[in-house]
Fold this sequence. Notes:
The chain has helices at 3-32, 38-72, 80-99, 101-106, 114-141. It has one domain (3-141). Helix 1 packs antiparallel against helix 2 (38-72), helix 1 runs antiparallel to helix 5 and helix 3 packs antiparallel against helix 5 (114-141). By secondary structure, it is mainly α. This is DUF2269 family protein.
Amino acid sequence: MDLLYKLLLYIHVLSVIVSIGPFFILLPISKKMHLVGKEELDAYLGTFRFVVRLTMHSGHVLVISGILLVMSGPWTWDTSWIIMTLLILFCSLFFLARAFSPKLRKFQEKGTNKEELAVKLQRTTWIYIILLITMLWFMVVKPALWA
């Protein structure tokens, strides 16, 4: 393995960590969001927005480094685990676009059931974590689903 490939692989793995890790911080925060006052809620919402933005940008690095790894590595675009990873990636992009921002905006609306919204936000966070971990599984295990 040449140095450039190793560097790309390192960047790719690091971007996976940055894409998944911060979401685990959001789980305990989402449990408390309906119990706090406005100042604390604003801080929690800011944390959520930051994590979503951070993971979005690390996702860009993840995709670019993944493309470069496929182009310079031993795999082809029709490899089953790459196709499945890309399929889940596109699903997660649509999910991320609709999952967090609308719910976070509703927290600041008057008359919103914050407890119900916090439960939805926690469920959304878990769904996104599961999507990301599923992609990670495909990238690590590299299963041959078809020939």
